[in-house]
Specification:
heterodimer; A: about 290 residues; alpha/beta; Rossmann fold; 2 domains; eight-stranded mixed β-sheet; 8 helices; 8 strands; about 30% helix; about 15% strand; B: about 120 residues; alpha+beta; N-terminal domain of TfIIb; binds S-adenosylmethionine; Trm112-like (chain B); protein heterodimerization activity (chain B)
Chain lengths: ~290, ~120
């Protein structure tokens, strides 16, 4: 797999003219963007009354995702940090309005005016500090806080994203919860490395009947096992008390110590190697 | 940028308490025809801050909107046509948006307002 773009350069640099070009010339990219946007719009679960809404496309880029919104009749405002991507959107003559803006600086909208928001493969960019002045936590806070305020009560935001690891997913999710959102993560095709897709489905305002986290899509061509989790993975549902995962209830055994040491290593701490002496029972006089 | 967006936007510079409405400095204004959708207009009407909307339309050279409104107007075809036109068909192509509190200018070019903040404004 190619290196993660977030690790190569800041978004306004990575999404330069040649990268932006791909959003008009590569049928593979166009196809993926369209599929992700259609799914995000579906997960928004707007009322089925045929009334067009005012939606937000966060990290709208070249406007491919926005076109999906237009096709369903909605009005939208898209914002993006990359000028090259916005130029492609202008060329494409998208129907939505475009803003050159950085979501990490907070969204400047009046409170409660937006009926729903989607974002395709953009929010994980907030976890990178691209300038010395960037503090990812502050940027996540500014983003989710302002998103929450600009949405109408009962509205949803569906953010498709590629977290780099579990810690990053948790970080993003936690900041969404802190801003006041309820909701969870929907994972489509969890068993396929290629088609696996994650959507943060966020509800603005008190949970209602319709605010339950929707079902994920299964894996095509695989027979369903009895195990529900096989195709529906919903983690961290805020409306349920979160259970902390315990490693092992019998603290102190050799396995437990080795696991703990491994954990500390992952955090970058200097930990002595595991040997036959690790967690060995000491003589009582020791 | 259309007036729909202008009516929702506010300046979020650090320390600004009421960044709405952004003043418009109109350079180039263009019009593009869009199909009218009455359901959308009725739905969005409740969210529009009317006075700033009328003001903004005037700045862009359109002064057919009534100064005062109430929801009963939504039954008038004449009103809906004007509302639709001002909301969705007039575009600010070149110019600037100005923060009402600080006077900071956000340039608009190719129809796109540049809302990026400087580091000391975040
Ligand atoms: C995978 S692209 C999505 C493209 C878009 N859905 C389309 O249809 O073209 C991710 C986009 O997120 C934008 N992005 C990344 N960080 C951003 C930020 N802090 N604020 C706004 N946009 C950002 C990038 O510039 C890029 O255009």
């Amino acid at each position: 797999m190619a290196a993660r773009p977030e690790l190569l350069a800041p978004p306004e640099i990575f999404y330069d003219q040649s990268e932006a070009r791909k959003y008009t010339s590569s049928s593979r990219i166009i196809d993926i963007q369209a599929k992700l946007s259609e799914r995000a719009l579906e997960l928004l679960a707007l009322p089925d009354d045929g009334v067009p809404r005012l939606l937000l496309d966060i990290g709208c880029g070249s406007g491919l995702s926005g076109e999906t919104l237009s096709e369903s009749g909605h009005q939208w405002i898209g914002l993006d940090i990359s000028e090259a991507m916005l130029d492609v959107a202008v060329e494409r003559e998208v129907d939505g309005d475009l803003l050159h803006a950085d979501m990490g600086q907070g969204l400047g909208f009046r409170p409660g005016v937006i009926d729903g928001a989607i974002s395709i493969s953009a929010v994980q960019w907030l976890c990178n500090a691209d300038k010395s002045s960037h503090e990812p936590r502050l940027r996540l806070k500014a983003f989710f806080g302002s998103l929450y305020r600009s949405l109408a009560r009962g509205a949803r935001a569906v953010l498709q994203l590629y977290p780099q690891n579990i810690a990053q997913r948790e970080l993003i999710f936690n900041y969404a919860m802190r801003a006041g959102f309820g909701g969870g993560v929907v994972v489509d095709y969890p068993h396929s490395t290629k088609s696996r897709k994650e959507y943060l489905v966020l509800n603005c305002g008190p949970p209602s009947l319709s605010a339950a986290v929707p079902n994920a899509k299964g894996e095509d061509g695989m027979s369903c096992s009895d195990d529900e989790e096989n195709h529906t993975v919903t983690v961290s549902d805020r409306n349920r008390p979160r259970k902390k995962r315990k490693l092992d209830k019998t603290n102190g055994g050799k396995d437990w110590v080795i696991q703990k040491k491994e954990q500390m290593r992952r955090k970058g701490a200097a930990v002595p190697a595991d040997t036959k002496y690790t967690a060995r029972k000491r003589k009582s006089r020791f | 940028m259309r007036l729909l967006t202008h009516n929702m936007l506010s300046s979020n510079i650090k320390g600004v308490t009421d960044g709405f409405p952004l003043k418009i400095e109109a350079g180039k204004v263009v019009e593009k025809e869009v199909d009218m959708n009455t359901d959308f207009l009725k739905n969005i009407f409740t969210k529009i801050e009317w006075k700033p909307f009328v003001e903004a339309a005037k700045t862009l050279g359109y002064s057919e909107l009534p100064e005062d409104v109430d929801p009963s107007l939504l039954d008038s075809q004449d009103f809906l046509t004007k509302f639709h036109h001002a909301l969705l068909e007039i575009h600010l192509e070149e110019g600037a948006l100005v923060c009402p509190e600080t006077g900071r200018k956000f340039p608009v070019s190719k129809g796109i307002p540049n809302m990026l903040l400087h580091e000391d404004e975040v």
